[in-house]
Amino acid sequence: MSDHVDIIIIGAGVIGLSVARALSLAGKNVLILEREKSFGMGVSSRNSEVIHAGLYFDADMLKSSLCVRGKEMLYQYAAERHIPHKRCGKLLVASSEAELPKLEQIKLNAENCGVNDLRMLSKADCSALEPDISAVAGIFSPSSGVIDSHSLMLCLLADTENSGGQVVFNTVISAIEKTAEGFKVTTNDDYSISCDILINAAGLGAMTIANMIDVLDKSHIPDLIMAKGNYFSYSAKTSFNHLVYPLPFQGGLGVHLTLDTAGGVKFGPDVKFIEHEEYTVSPSLKNDFLNSIRHYFPTVDPEKLNADYAGIRPKLSKDGLDFCIQFEKDHKIKGLINLFGIESPGLTASLAIADYIKEKI
């Protein structure tokens, strides 16, 4: 391995891999450094694997524009590379008359963001789409879906390597120094490599990496708020064909019903703000999950609901600020790109985020 590359990307999650693929295909000499033993072992492997339509965010947010753009890029890429995915559609449900104004508000906001394929549903329409769901009204989003995120990342990595990019696992960064030419990155085994451009895509570790950069004013590093989301699997035989979401609330989109690409059903995530990274799912949460699920799926079988897995979203506020993607104009350091708070809809937006960064370099 050379001791100098054009670009070092720290983090081999779906964002780091997407950016590496885009820049490698553009002819750049790219090296990914990842602390874990394989790719996608953090935020990218512990989520709902949903392809979002882009309904909830303000039109002027990156979360909105990159989600709407990234959604179609992701469907196209998945089809080209035969990545398991399904454009199954999403049913967003109101459980009471009091929620109807919120439903209308979401539809109007989505249309303002360029999502014009939503359909308002009556109670009868909801029952026709999903007979086991209880709702007074709903919205159907035909462009929502699911994707196998592991297969996606495998393809992104293959494209990167086939274009000359490299990835090194089990590599912990110990220091980052600004040099006249760019940056010198030192690992915990005292190996150093230099680059012209440094891209910090370390997910939950992005703030830690940023704090290592000797010339970066620490006022540019936001606080990390870790939002743990627990998931429960559901083993009962069901007839669900669509994603089913309650109306969103502060901090998240509610405990929703998600299908995987094989048709399996899971529920989650909830939102628990935590101080330390940990992924245990307590069976004691089952009653809370049942109470949430019964609002729209009253016949859920408690015996078939079991604690499954958890993920942590790297939020920048409890209300969910926009993605924070910093370039030289933001921190005055040539060649440095920081990605902070890349939570949902980061998976959906991943290819669009990569293009956004490529266009800025």
Short note summarizing the structure:
Helix content is 28%, strand content 27%.
In percent, how helical is the residue content?
25-40%
Q: What is the radius of gyration?
A: 21 Å
Estimate what percentage of residues fall within beta strands: 25-35%
- Would you identify the CATH H-level superfamily of the largest domain? FAD/NAD(P)-binding domain
Q: Order of helices and strands, N to C?
A: EHEEHEEHEHEEHEEEEHEEEEEHEEHEH
In the predicted model, the low-confidence regions spanning at least 5 consecutive residues are none
Per DSSP, the total helix count is 9
Q: On the 0-100 scale, what is the average pLDDT?
A: 96
Name the overall outline: elongated
CATH third-level topology of the largest domain: FAD/NAD(P)-binding domain
Structural features, described:
There is one protein chain. This protein has 361 residues and is of the alpha+beta class. Helix content is 28%, strand content 27%. It has helices at residues 14-25, 62-81, 100-112, 123-129, 149-162, 206-212, 286-293, 328-331, 346-360, and strands spanning 4-10, 30-33, 50-51, 85-86, 90-94, 119-122, 137-141, 145-147, 166-168, 173-178, 183-187, 192-200, 225-234, 243-245, 256-259, 265-268, 272-274, 305-315, 324-326, 336-340. The strands form 4 sheets. Strands 1, 2, 9, 10, 11, 12, 19 and 20 form an 8-stranded mixed beta sheet that branches. Strands 13, 15, 16, 17 and 18 form a 5-stranded antiparallel beta sheet that branches. Strands 6-7-5-14 form a 4-stranded mixed beta sheet. The longest helix has 20 residues, at 62-81.
